[in-house]
Structure formats: C-alpha cells, structure tokens
Amino acid sequence: MPTILLVRHGQASFGEPVYDRLSEVGRAQATALGAYLREHLPAEPARIITGSLERQTHTAQLAKSAAGWTADVTTDARWNEYDSDCLLSLAGCSDDIISATEFQKRIEVGMRLWATEAQHRSVYREFARAADEALTELAAVPGTSVVFSSAGVISQLATALIDGTVETWVKLCRVAANTGVTTLAAGRQGVNLVSFNQTAHCTGRLLTYR
Predict the structure, then answer these.
(1) Domains of the chain (ranges plus CATH)?
(2) CA distances from 110 to 82, 130, 155, 170, 200 (A)
(3) Which of 4, 78, 110, 178 lies 20 to 30 Å (CA to CA) from residue 34?
(4) Residues near 177 by Cβ (< 8 Å), separated by ≥ 6?
C-alpha cells in the first residue's frame, strides 16, 4: 500500500530580510524529524520529494542526513507554497507587518478571498489542482514517499480528503506546525487521511507554528 508522508518545512526566518531560509530552530526541527523517522518508519522511503523553495529543500536535506536515508531527493514545484505576497495584497496590506499574529490574520483574509472571489478563484483552483495532481501520481506507486512542502499545500490536500470547506482549509493551515507530519494511505478506495500534523519529534522550543 502506498504511504505518503507530507512534511511541513522547518521554521523559516519570519521578520528577517529573507524569509525563505531556515532559522536556527528550523534547522534543529529538521534534524529532530530525521532522527525520529529513522526510529519510527518501518523502512526507508522509496522516494523523497521537495518543493523548490529553499526552506523546503533545506529541511529535506537535513532530515535525510539525520535519518541516514539513501534515496535521492527530487524537486517538484507543484509542492511549493501559495504566494503570500499575493494573499496579503488581496487583504489590503503588505508583508511589512509588526507581528506574526497580525500576519496570520491578514493571510487568512487573503486565503478566503483567493478561494471564493470570482476574479481570483481560477488561480486558487490551479494551486489546488497542481497539488492534487502531484499527490495522485505518488498514490499510484508502491512504497513510502516523503514530501517536504508547506502549510498551505498540506492543509489544502487534507481539506480535500475530508470534503472540507474553505474555512476548514484556513483552520487546518492555522495549526500546521513546523515539520509537522501528515500521513496518507492509498488503496483501492483512493487516498485517505490517516493523521494530520503529528509533532512527537518537536518538544519545548522546537514546537513552532511560524
């Protein structure tokens, strides 16, 4: 039975000039994840996939090294995150926001508008379609796949698998932890959500959401 682990990237550099870069905590999270999976996965993954964003690829590299995996890492931009600048613009602001809490509120406004307003919906649907297409391809091959992606993509796929709404997507994305692991299983009845946002490897300061 194909098994797919969707991993959110480690903590990025919020508030820094370059966001798309793992923080010190993000690097520690990725290493802790790899060590945890080395002990708890029944076998090495057959494939390791990552989006093309630096925070995704670096998380994959660190986790692979800590786990001692031998599979090559392949890049697939369909696993990239939504364009946060676009969503903030829809919400009527920029990324020059003073707090992570305010950033999250504005992003959620943008997510709702992106997914529901007629003039933006086609771009949102393409984002969702690309993620679903990438997942469908992995569900057709045997073994375990580990994918390093982002909160918006992972939450979107989880929402679709439970027939959720746009509000479900927003709420799942809100609680997606850095390096949280979502597990999917593919079988005769399609792809099923086994668990969402598992964080047993993150304790103390390593449990973060932004």
Answers:
(1) 3-80+130-152+178-204 (3.40.50.1240)
(2) 11, 20, 15, 10, 31
(3) 78
(4) 8, 197, 199, 202, 207, 208, 209
Distance of CA 119 to the CA centre of its chain: 26
- Give the integer Cα–Cα distance in Å for 60 and 10: 9
Distance CA 63, CA 201 (A): 12
Minimal CA–CA distance to 180: which of 41, 26, 6, 14? 6
Half-sphere exposure of 37 (CA within 13 A, CB side): 32
| 45 has a pLDDT exceeding 90 | yes
Residue 131 is predicted with a pLDDT of 97
Percent of the chain with pLDDT over 70: 98
Sheet of strand 190-198, all strands in order from the earlier edge strand to the far edge = 73-75, 47-50, 144-149, 3-8, 181-187, 190-198
pLDDT in tens, 22-39: 999 999 999 999 999 999
Residue 126 — very low, low, confident or very high, per pLDDT cuts 50/70/90?
Answer: very high
Of 41, 61, 64, nearest in space to 53 by CA? 61
Q: At 39, list the tokens.
A: 């002990």
In the structure encoding, which two tokens stand for residue 158, read together?
A: 């989880």
pLDDT at position 98 is 66
- Look up the pTM and report it: 0.94
